[in-house]
């Protein structure tokens, strides 16, 4: 279908067309790093497939001609329920790296989560921002260094702390092992003020420089006590990213965590973990209304966003599609990807006879009959 689509070359009209354009432009091993998942990439595929199991239940004759997708979160009203997910090493996608993404997100009035592993400092990114920023924290072996990142994020005006909890060690990303993937010498984790370890830049088939670096740096014994301590050490709202079960949601709520991001890291960590959408209802139940619930993984259409809302998400994060926009067209591409997705969401809301994001409930979706048409990914990683 895409082969004959000349328009996709110059003017993508959806996220899949951005993927196609980006794939042509990206350096192959960087594309693999961005597109890939762990092991057999079953969880990566499951994230997409999960959305196909639900259909929308539109209501007719609503008499409403406006839609409002704004969402109140942690004391401020975000213009839309879309957030830019934390993605490390964006210098792989564009020379301006995260600066372009922050600018692109700002132009689309969309909040962004900045990764610990950004190629620009969190302070530089705060200066370039015109929409809210949250900081994503990887807990490092050195607790002082970890806390210093939190303090820097607070001082720079970040509005929430997202602690990623699904990566005590890195998933085996076989594409990277095959490619001997390593970070190019001109890119470094700029928030970590020490010299980057040589492993990060050493390309050797059968190893991943990024995985070796994670092994050296990250706290492999990350536990609830670390998270509870961090919660006490900051006044920022704290979210846990990577929760997939009712039990962990219950515990997060009971220790006062403010938000949960239902996520399997875009299928890059435990292969065999469930699709995020599939476990959203049980996480919502476990949290029992005590935490705000966000979701990421596999969102590629406005209707996906609506299904996530109907199943209990307050907001969603978008990962790889942001990189497609960044690769294809820099900051403008990021803005365009976010605008396309928001326009699709508003359209879907209107065609479902709804006017407010906050009023969407479970009655808007039903399980699809088995053997329905189904969305088929034209290429892997989309
Ligand atoms: C290239 C890449 C780098 C990522 N880096 C981070 C990171 O630094 N921190 C983090 O918490 N998650 C990271 N993630 C996971 C994303 O935040 C998000 O969970 C995932 O991409 C969502 O799935 P999607 O790509 O299908 O939208 C990364 C994902 C990708 C594709």
UniProtKB/TrEMBL annotation:
Its cofactor is FMN. It comes from the Bacteria. FMN binds at residues 86-88, 115, 136, 164, 241, 296-300, 319-320. Residues 7-370 form the FMN hydroxy acid dehydrogenase domain. GO terms for molecular function: FMN binding; oxidoreductase activity, acting on CH-OH group of donors. Glyoxylate binds at residues 138, 173, 263, 265, 268. Transmembrane segments: none annotated. Keywords: Flavoprotein, FMN, Oxidoreductase. The active site is at residue 265. SUPFAM superfamilies: FMN-linked oxidoreductases. InterPro entries: Aldolase_TIM, Alpha-hydoxy_acid_DH_FMN, FMN-dep_DH, FMN_HAD, FMN_hydac_DH_AS. Belongs to the FMN-dependent alpha-hydroxy acid dehydrogenase family. This is 4-hydroxymandelate oxidase. The lineage of its organism: Bacteria, Pseudomonadati, Myxococcota, Myxococcia, Myxococcales.
């Amino acid at each position: 279908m895409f082969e004959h689509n000349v328009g996709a070359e110059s003017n993508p009209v959806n996220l899949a067309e951005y993927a196609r354009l980006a794939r042509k432009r990206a350096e192959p091993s960087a594309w693999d790093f961005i597109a890939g998942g762990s092991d057999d990439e079953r969880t990566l595929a499951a994230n997409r497939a999960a959305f196909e199991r639900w259909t929308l239940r539109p209501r007719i004759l609503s008499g409403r001609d406006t839609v409002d997708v704004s969402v109140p979160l942690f004391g401020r009203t975000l213009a839309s329920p879309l957030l830019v997910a934390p993605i490390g090493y964006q210098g792989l996608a564009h020379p301006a790296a995260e600066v372009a993404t922050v600018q692109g997100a700002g132009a689309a009035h969309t909040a962004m989560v900045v990764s610990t592993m950004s190629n620009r400092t969190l302070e530089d990114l705060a200066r370039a921002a015109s929409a809210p920023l949250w900081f994503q924290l990887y807990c490092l072996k050195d607790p002082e260094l970890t806390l210093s990142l939190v303090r820097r994020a607070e001082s720079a005006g970040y509005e929430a702390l997202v602690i990623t909890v699904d990566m005590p060690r890195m998933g085996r990303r076989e594409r990277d092992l095959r490619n001997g993937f390593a970070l190019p010498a001109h890119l470094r984790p700029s928030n970590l003020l020490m010299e980057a370890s040589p492993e990060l830049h050493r390309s050797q088939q059968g190893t991943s420089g990024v995985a070796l670096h994670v092994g050296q740096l990250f706290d492999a014994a990350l536990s609830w006590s670390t998270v509870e301590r961090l919660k006490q050490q900051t006044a920022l709202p704290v979210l846990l990213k990577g929760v997939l079960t009712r039990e962990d949601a219950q515990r997060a709520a009971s220790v006062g965590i403010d938000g949960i991001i239902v996520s399997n890291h875009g299928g890059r960590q435990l292969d065999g973990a469930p699709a995020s959408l599939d476990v959203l209802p049980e996480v919502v139940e476990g949290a029992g209304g005590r935490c705000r619930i966000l979701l990421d993984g596999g969102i590629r259409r406005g209707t996906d966003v609506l299904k996530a809302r109907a199943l209990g998400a307050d907001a969603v994060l978008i990962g790889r599609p942001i990189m497609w926009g960044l690769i294809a067209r820099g900051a403008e591409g990021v803005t365009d990807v976010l605008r396309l997705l928001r326009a699709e969401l508003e359209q879907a809301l209107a065609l479902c006879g709804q006017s407010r994001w906050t009023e969407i409930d479970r009655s808007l979706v039903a399980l699809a009959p088995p053997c329905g048409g189904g969305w088929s990914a034209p290429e892997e990683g989309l």
